[in-house]
Structure formats: C-alpha cells, structure tokens
Amino acid sequence: MWVRGLTHFIAMCKNIHKEWEYDRWLKDQFRKADVNGNGSLNFSECTSLLKQLNICMDKKHVKALFDAAQFHHNKIQEESALDQEEFVRFYHSIHKRPEIEQLFKQYTMKNATIMEPEELYIFLKEQQKMSQVTLSYFRRIIDMYGGDQETEKGYLSFAGFQKFLLSEDCNIFNKDHHTVYQDMSQPLSHYFIASSHNTYLLQGQLIGESSVEGYIFALKCGCRCLELDVWNGPNEEPIIYHGRTFTSKILLSDVVEVIKKYAFVTSRYPVILSLENHCGETQQLKMAEHFVNIFGDMLYTTPVSEDETDLPSPEKLIGKILLKGKKLSESTINGEEELLEEEEEAENQWESRESSLKESRQGSKNTQYRKLTQEVSDLVNYVKAVRFQAFENASQWKFYEMSSFRETKAASLIETQASSFVSYNKKHLSRVYPKGLRTDSSNLDPVQFWNVGCQLVALNYQTYDKAFFLNEAKFTPNGKCGYILKPEFLRSAKRFDPNEPPNRKCMKKLTIKIISGQHIPKPGQATEGEIVDPYVIIKVYGHPLDKLKVKTSFVKNNGFNPQWNETFTLHIGVPDLAIIVFTVKDESMSGKNYKLGKYALPFSSLMEGYRHIHLLDKSFQPIIPASLFVHVAIEDGFE
Predict the structure, then answer these.
(1) Which residues, including other chains, have CB under 8 Å from residue 176's CB and lie 6 or more apart?
(2) Which of 19, 63, 140, 553 has the most CB atoms around it within 10 Å of its CB?
C-alpha cells in the first residue's frame, strides 16, 4: 500500500510539473511580447502575440475574451491591458477543446458537468482498454487530476478530464515502458543493443573535433556500445582519433576516465567497448594498464568457462564493462595476431586495402597488422572479434566469437542469405558499421539490420537524422536502458526470413484517427512569418512489406487548434519490428513543406484509445506545448 501511495504521489508530482511547465511557457511568451516592460499587454499587443503563436480567430470573439479576463483592470489606464496572470487566464479561455468537450459529454450520462468514478471507469475500460484496474484506482485518478473549485470532491470536472487526457496516463507511449519491463536474463545475443560509431567524433569523419563529450553524450542517451580507435601517441601515451585524417586527438586515459564516470548513470546494464587497436606493443601495455587501473572492478576480466554454452545475460553483467577485440589463441603463430577486423581503415576511399598491405610488406610504421600483446588479449572474453568469411564457417565458432560487418556487406548478406543471417544472430553478436564514404557522418538505415537480428547497429550519435530518430524510438522503451529484447522469432529455433511474406497469424490492423492538433509551431519555432497550414503524415518502418505511408489533408491558417478528424487503417504484417512515425508539416504552395514537429515509437509501445502525441523538434527535444490528439485501435489479423 505504501508503494502504491508513493507511485501515486510521484505521478501527481509529474503532472503538477507538466502543468507548471505549460504556464511557465505562457509567461515566457508574455514577457517576450512585453516590449516596453510595463508588465502588461494591451489588446493590440495580445493579438500580435496570438499571431506569433499561430492563432487565427475572429477579432470580436478575441476582444470579448480579452475583456472578460481583466480582473485587475486599473481605471486610471488610458487603455485596457492584461497583466501576466490575466493573460494566462485569457489564453486558457481561448484554448477551447470542442473535441474533448464532446467526449466528456458522451460519458457523463447523469450530469453533463461532472464525471463520476463509475463513468470514468466505463470510459477507461471501453476506450482506453484499461480493463484490469479497480474503481479505487479511478478514484485516485480523480484525486490526482481533480476538478475546479466548484466541482464536488470525488468527481471529475471537464477541466480535470482535459488535464487527464494531456497527462502521461494518456500519452500514446505506454508509460510502463519508461521502466525496465523486459526479461533481462537471456543471452546478450537475444537483445538489440544501442551502439555508437566513432563515438569520439563531434562532427565529420575527416576533419573536426574529437572529444570526450562524444562519450558523455552517447552514454547519457543510453548507448551501451562505444568505439575506441586507439593509436600510438606522444610520450608513450595512447591516443584516440580517426586515423589518417585531420580529426583532433585525445588521450585514451581521459576517455577511460569519462567512461568510468558516466557508464552507468543512465543504465546499469553492461557497456561494450569496441576496440580498434592500432598500437605497437609498448603502448598496448599502457592501454591495458589504463583499462585495468582506471576501470578497476568495473572491467569484466573473468575468462570464459569451458562449460559455458551461451553468452551471459545483461542481468548477470550489471555494472560491468566488456572489451570487444581480437584475442590470442592456441593456433596463433609466434604470438602474432591480426589486430583489425574488416573495419573502416581498410576500406576508406582515400586508402585501399591493397595499398595498406603493400605498406605493411615494406615495413611502414603505419602498418595495418601488428602483434597483439598478451596483456590486451587477456582482457577480451565474451566479445571476441573474428573475421567473417561465411555463415558455414561461423556455425563452427565458439558462442563468444563475433564479427563486424560494413553496411554494404551486411546489406548484401540480407539480400542473398537473410535466414542464415538471422540464425547466426541468434547465437552470436554482430556489429554493423557505416561505410567509409559517409565522411559527413550521415547514418546507415538501421531498420534492415534489426530485421535480421543484428544487435550492434552502430550509428553516428552526433548526427540528428532520420536513422538516429528511428534509433531513439527503438531504444526508448525498456527504461531507455540500451537493451531491447528481440522478438521471439529472432531468438527461437523458428525460421524467419524478412524477404518472405510474414506469417498472417502475427498480423495486426492498426486504425488511427488524427483528431486535432494543439500549438503547432511555425518552422523552426519562429515567432515571425505566416500562420501555418499543417498536415500530418504517418509512416511505418519495419518489415519490407510494412513500408506504409498515409497523410491528412492540410488545415488552412491554423496552427493553434487544427481539426482533421481523418481515420486511417494500416495493416501491419510484423508488428514486433514496426516503428510508427508521426510527422507534422506545413503545406506550402510555393516552396518547401517544412517539418513542424515529429514523434516515433515502436508498435509494441502503442497505447489504445484517446491519446496525445507530444511533438519533438529536429533535435528530439519536446516542443512545449505542441501535441496531436488521436484515437488508436488495434485488432488481430486482417479482415
């Protein structure tokens, strides 16, 4: 009971904070519009501000609401004006939600002005599909969202009902998925793992800054696989940078210190360090020394036991750091081992593999193959890097052996041997990294690689593009811990090939009604410019046959409260792989249709019923208070 009470209190605090944040936003708009700093806005200033906020209304109606909001009008003033609190009241009076009023009246059968607990129960059961909760829970909802001063205690007013629909309880994203809810006791190979490519870079791949900030940002985002490109540095200290480019250099020791500090701030589950070792023997010793001395007990160094048959689970490795890299074996000749896998340095456009091998034979100091030291090798256990040749060979590997694939190589394997790739990924880890031609740090499309179960699809976290947006959506569930349990068909003995039509038994019919929008911003959240003509696009990413796209008509001159009321039915063949993306754009007759806001989530995190979608900007930050109001229904199979 104490836990339930605490949960209720925390949820109440969250919603109070959201309401306070909304009013703070309004007051910020007021201060910006108060150019002369006299603490009030006259009618002309208010109408100018409304235009900046994308509100287009009849002037007489606005004037009537303006006059009604003046509770503290000073008769000495030559013209009427609103202070800050009056402006907030004025704005809320404008912000009528007829679609919510209609819904409220539909479920308040006894009294159209209040909603009783039993009526709320019926609404949540019928529309929101919350059939497992009790009436006592609904009474707590009423206490949390409350009503106005005139509403009798124990009942929900229309204002309270509207607050409830705007709260986290009625978000389109399942709020239970904000915590770790999946089984975390399965082998590492059974999870998608949030992964970064060239984590140290803040800009492009050829020029620009290398920084520990790249590691801090990735770890705070929940990333669990970081890349270390380690090279010989001055004063016998290994450095990290993108080799043979003009990117700046940073000390390995500084990076290790930062990883230690931030590794488990966002997630407690294991961090994998993908090591590209370009160092000579002396600096490899220094590298191993830094790993051991700085990480301490965080570094998991226990050798693989002979009686183990599967990778350990994320649960077993909580708080641990694993090193991915080459490892000396009994078959190694004279202690020599190829250090690099088929990675970027062998494929970049400015250096072919053949020229690198020629340099190696000529004894160049930049030779691509070096002797692996025992000290570094001993730190590698469950993530041993092996060069991939064919799936037939890989079937003979130890469970802890894995390969990295250039995106073009991985895409080719998906095209020709998809089911074999799926089978490989059930037992072994695979890492997919961008091709060398992506010098601008653009990202590969991760979806096709997730479709065959590739766990470590490495993205450039510094680039806020569509691929990274989908990656954020993929890894937001499960508490954003960086690990997402793969669908059962990508883990079990069942055969799956994404190039073939999906099993009809798994199909879902998704019906989405785009009802309305609220506070849709102008392009770039600008305050100047014309009022937008918004429309909504819904896209599905996942199985190749689930590439779907629908869109609403546009609403002329209304970013404040556009009404669409358009319904779309989407037949989704493999819902466990599907990501649903909502994008709001501005219809332009003469130029580009700019994005105004967006949101994405996995199908598995969709909530049914009347839901709000809180829009994000191009940097994936909330656009307060922009939202869409929708209705979602999910049915099994096709009609």
Answers:
(1) none
(2) 140
Chain-centre distance for alpha carbon 221: 8
Rounded to the nearest 10°, the torsion over CA 9, 10, 16, 21 is 170
Note the pLDDT tens digit of each residue in 435-490. Answer: 999 999 999 999 999 999 999 999 999 999 999 999 999 999 999 999 999 999 99
DSSP state of 606: B
Kindly state the tokens that stand for 596.
């105004």
- DSSP 8-state class, residue 173: B
636 strand-pairing partners: 508
- For 125, which DSSP code? H
147 CB neighbour count, 10 Å cutoff: 21
Residue 183 structure tokens: 């089984």
> What pairing do the DSSP bridges indicate for beta strands 456-459 and 156-157?
unpaired
pTM: 0.87
Catalytically active residues, by annotation: 197, 242
Residue 358 neighbours by CB under 8 Å, 6+ apart: none
Can you state the angle between helices 2-33 and 135-145, rounded to 10 degrees? Answer: 30
How far apart CA 570 and CA 581 sit, in angstroms, is 13
Query: Tens of pLDDT along 317-363?
Result: 999 999 999 999 866 645 455 555 444 444 443 333 333 333 434 33
CA 160/CA 344 separation, integer angstroms: 56
Distance of CA 371 to CAs 239, 277, 334, 374, 562, Å?
18, 10, 9, 10, 65
Distance (Å) of CA 251 to CA 235, 287, 504, 626: 11, 10, 54, 43
- Find all residues with CB under 8 Å of 578, minimum gap 6, and list them: 540, 541, 542, 543, 546, 572, 602, 603
* pLDDT single digits (tens) 606-634: 999 999 999 999 889 999 889 999 999 99
- Residue 154 to residue 149: CA distance in whole angstroms: 12
Q: How many CA atoms lie within 13 A of 317 on its CB side?
A: 25
Say which amino acid occupies 375: E
According to DSSP, the residues that pair with 606 across neighbouring strands are 173
Q: List C-alpha distances in Å: 239 to 283, 392, 426, 517.
A: 10, 38, 35, 51
Residues 6 or more apart whose CB falls under 8 angstroms from that of 430 comprise 402, 403, 404, 405, 410, 421, 424, 454, 455, 456
How far CA 67 is from CA of 72, 79, 88, in Å, comes to: 11, 11, 13
Kindly report the number of other CB atoms within 10 A of residue 155's CB atom. 19
What CA–CA distance (Å, rounded) separates 465 from 411? 20
Q: Of the candidates 230, 235, 236, 262, which has an alpha carbon nearest to the alpha carbon of residue 249? A: 230
Beta-bridged to residue 227, according to DSSP, are 274
Burial class of residue 357, CB neighbours in 10 A (0-12, 13-18, 19+): middle
Contact assessment for residue 241 and residue 200, using Cβ atoms and an 8 Å cutoff: yes
DSSP state string for 59-120: HHHHHHHHHHT-SS--TTSSS-EE-HHHHHHHHHHH---HHHHHHHHHH--S-TTEE-HHHH
372-386 burial code (b ≥16 CB/10 A, e <16): bbebbbebbbbbbbb
Judge if the upstream peptide bond of residue 625 is cis by omega within 30 degrees of 0.
Answer: yes
